[in-house]
Known about the structure:
Helices cover about 40% and strands about 15% of the residues. The chain is an alpha+beta fold. Strand 4 and strand 5 form a beta hairpin. The protein starts with a strand and ends with a helix.
Amino acid sequence: MAGGEEEDQNGRDNMVIDGYELETPELWQGKTIPDGFNANYLKVYYGKLFPLADIFKWMSYGNDGKHPACDPSYFGRREFSFTLDNDIYLRFQSFNNASELENSIREKCPFKIDIGPVYSVDPAKRHAYAQSGDNVFTPVERELIFDIDMTDYDDVRYCCSGADVCLNCWPLMTIAIKVIDIALRDDFGFKHILWVYSGRRGVHCWVCDVKARRLSNEQRAAIADYFRLYKGNENNHKKVSLMGPALHPFLVRSYTEVLKDFFEKKLLSVQNLLSTEERYEKILEMIPDESITSELRGKWQNNRRSSSAKEDINVVRWEQLKHLLQSGKQKAQGLRRCVEEIVFSFTYPRLDMEVSKHMNHLLKAPFCIHPKTGRICVPIDPNHCEEFNPTTVPTLCKLLEELNDSGLRPDVDREWDETSLGESIRLFRSSFLQPLLKSCKEEMENSYNVKLQQSKNTLSW
């Protein structure tokens, strides 16, 4: 790679990478790295850093080799969609191999790449099948996907709203990852799960086991409903209602292993959930016993500060609330469960249910660049998701500067290794792609051997 700076006729410094001349913003002159999205840099990103070969291997699920059980049409029946400059949207893009996909991406430089299902026939040729009168164009395989957006938590966070995210509200995404990942593995037996930062305000989940990819819409809806708990809206005081004499084991595990600690040790204080009258009234409205709410309101209005400056007023008030609701005199199960309902209301994952229920939904590809923030959609390790920091995710401009600073590289296939994207690609390969492909190979081999044995048995008759 040739990296360096030249000066144009107007005296501005330009960055040259691999023959591409890119105007360098003034901020780059020995100062700070600019964040954000710059369409001019996409060509270099897709040509040098985007792990296209890995995406192709993933989307092929082992059907890109010479094994007799491979389906050579598999990848070619996958839908991709491109969003180009000026919001030009190209759906039903399909490619027969990695080379075709690579050439199209490099030529079009999409602002966003979305991945759809595998169809019964090549999506690009769907019209030909429609004209034949055979209604054969239908999705036959699709990862089980989940989309969680921080905007759905605006009623329980006070630091940000809308698309804004900070380290005070990001723990809500950490909670969602932990709760859903554990359930997918322990309750449903899935193994090949990929979590990805959306690039701005949320996370995506791809469940890629073969049994997940072949679920019907009805089965997907059943799994989505398994996670459904948050049913309220802005007009409801109680957004979560925990019914029945005992909680479902999944909810018990979520509460004891994840939600309770995150609520009490993190969110309660950083969001100041009980610090003002407006905020604590919102929580008191969730308690159906007027005598208790009156007693707590009286205490909190008369004692606006905790007894000690060292004590967090949110923690003090929360302990008072718990004591009243969970004391021995509160015999009604529903009243004692109010504490759990409050915690669930503020912390439990809020899914976009429709995305998970239907096979034909598209989802942004990992390692895309968010056009509003310039951040890369990097994988998140669910085992260490509490360490993930969305504010330090590599940006397009930062990666381009790192490429420019790295100088000549003889190993052109691993230029990402010299950038801050390297760690994310290594994580994708080691924790997700390699185990997935190993499993695909074993499944393919087992399936082939079964068919071979059946064929032998038929012949023996």
